[in-house]
Design brief:
It contains 10 helices and 6 strands. It has 333 residues and is mostly helical. It has a domain at 4-76 and 141-194 and 231-311. The strands form 3 sheets. The protein has a two-stranded antiparallel ribbon. Helix 1 (20-43) runs antiparallel to helix 6. The model is unreliable at 320-326 and 328-333 (pLDDT under 50).
Length: 333
């Protein structure tokens, strides 16, 4: 696809590039902050409180996403070896990797790699900070969601903000952000699906995730111009989240009967959609009890959504009259 969305040269700065995934992720955060600010004016909450919360949520989301990736996606030991013994880290050939499979000198490995004199394999230099380099990819939504939700719960209680009203706002912000993020996944070549013969399947060029995995599995040769056709699971996820956003923002939010209803609906809809899409994915992920980590968390998320609808205090009562009829009736700014 297109891992680098935009690149150009600037005087004084030299070559500048915008990775597709991180660019879409940044766009998702900016759009989320904008929607949060609009909702704050509607709910008569001081904008600085919401901006502070939004920025800190972004920090906790990035940390949590990275944490779960390192812990659950089977790459924890690679990050340990990068700091303690880089010679044990296997790096594939291709863009961003070493220049040769068998080296004789550091120079033959290409820039940024060293030659192991014992087995003549190239390896990366020691990098104890690699785990923090989120712009290189390796983020798991559920990890970010858990950490961000925990912080948001504390922040809202600490500042005595209307918990369920703000929860409903995040109920429609999150799926829009996920739509943008999954679009970045499609361009980046991560979170891809299993081989497929469907008319809408996609394929990836050399050295992108699917191509590398198919090469390692012996499904294609080293000279293959593309990977096998695979399910565009990123598009499945993006489409599902876009539909959730449209349904919640334009239909349910203006008609909600009680505060917390939109958040509960998001949890239910997203959990079902994510659990289903995981069945078609084939990228390396962690597994627990025969399910992917994300499927297991989806089950928990679905249960929380059911609890909100069944047990939420005041759920069967009327909506707070201070809440407006539609999300688009804010005073113009």
């Amino acid at each position: 696809m297109k891992p680098v969305l935009l690149e150009f040269n600037l005087p004084l700065f030299g070559h500048v590039s915008f990775p597709a995934y991180f660019t879409m992720l940044a766009l998702a955060f900016l759009v989320g902050l904008w929607l949060l600010e609009r909702a704050g004016r509607r709910l008569r909450i001081h904008p600085l409180k919401l901006y502070d919360m939004g920025v800190l949520i972004m920090v906790f989301a990035l940390f949590g996403s990275r944490f779960l990736h390192v812990l659950a996606d089977g790459q924890f030991i690679d990050y340990v070896h990068l700091c303690t013994d880089p010679k044990q880290v296997e790096v594939p050939l291709g863009p961003g990797g070493p220049a040769t499979e068998h080296c004789t000198t550091d120079a033959s490995c290409g820039e940024g790699f060293l030659c192991n004199g014992d087995n003549h394999k190239c390896y990366p230099p020691r990098d104890c900070l690699s785990v923090f380099k989120v712009w290189k990819g390796g983020l798991v939504f559920y990890g970010g969601f858990i950490f961000a939700a925990g912080f948001a719960f504390w922040y809202i209680r600490r500042h005595r903000l209307p918990f369920w009203k703000i929860g409903d706002v995040f109920g429609y912000i999150l799926p829009l952000g996920l739509f943008l993020g999954r679009t970045g996944c499609l361009l980046n070549g991560c979170c891809y699906g299993a081989p497929s013969s469907t008319p809408w399947s996609v394929r990836y060029g050399p050295w992108l995730g699917p191509w590398e995995d198919h090469l390692k599995a012996g499904l294609i040769g080293p000279g293959a111009a593309h990977s096998l056709h695979v399910h565009p699971t990123q598009l499945y996820s993006a489409g599902i989240n876009l539909l959730i956003f449209l349904a919640l923002y334009f239909w349910l939010y203006p008609r909600k009967k009680w505060d917390g209803q939109v958040l509960g609906a998001f949890l239910l809809a997203y959990a079902v959609g994510r659990f289903t899409v995981e069945m078609f994915r084939a990228d390396p992920r962690g597994a627990v009890l025969g399910m992917s980590t994300s499927q297991l968390i989806s089950v928990v998320m679905f249960g929380i959504g059911v609890w909100i609808f069944a047990k939420r205090p005041g759920a069967r009562g009327p909506q707070d009259p201070a809440t407006p009829a539609t999300p688009g009736t804010e005073a113009a700014a």
